[in-house]
Amino acid sequence: MMKLIATQPYFKVQREVNSIEQKNVEDDRTLYLYEDKLMTKHREFPADKIFDMSFRKLPKGEGILFIHTSQGVFSYTVKKDPEEFIQAFKSLEKEILKKKREEN
Q: Is the per-residue pLDDT at 83 higher than 80?
């Protein structure tokens, strides 16, 4: 297993409906950044297929972390500013690019 570099909590709101009520249930999850991949609860992205990460703050203090990949852009709702997580990715990205240059 590759070394864990950084984690970022995120959450998914799921609507539950039954015969008498409708409620939103918050499911707390975590993004895991390893040397070779990024893992979420249901997805795995190879690190060299992630092009960028960006963040947009929302009025309620929450925000959306965008993961830009070769498969498209994926968004994750976060409560905590993901700046450290993004910086950890950018450092990893530099290492990946450096290795690619050394291989050529």
A: yes
The residue with tokens 């060299």 is 48
Taking only the tens place, the pLDDT of each residue in 2-31 is: 899 999 999 998 888 988 999 988 999 999
What 3 state SS string does the chain have? Answer: CCCEEEEEEEEEEEEEECCCCEEEEEEEEEEEEECCEEECCCCEEEHHHEEEEEEEECCCCCEEEEEEECCEEEEEEECCCCHHHHHHHHHHHHHHHHHHHHHC
Parallel/antiparallel/unpaired status of strands 44-46 and 37-39? antiparallel
Please indicate, yes or no, whether the overall pTM of this predicted structure exceeds 0.70.
Answer: yes
Terminal C-alpha separation, the chain: 26
Sign of the dihedral through C-alpha 96, 51, 53, 45: negative
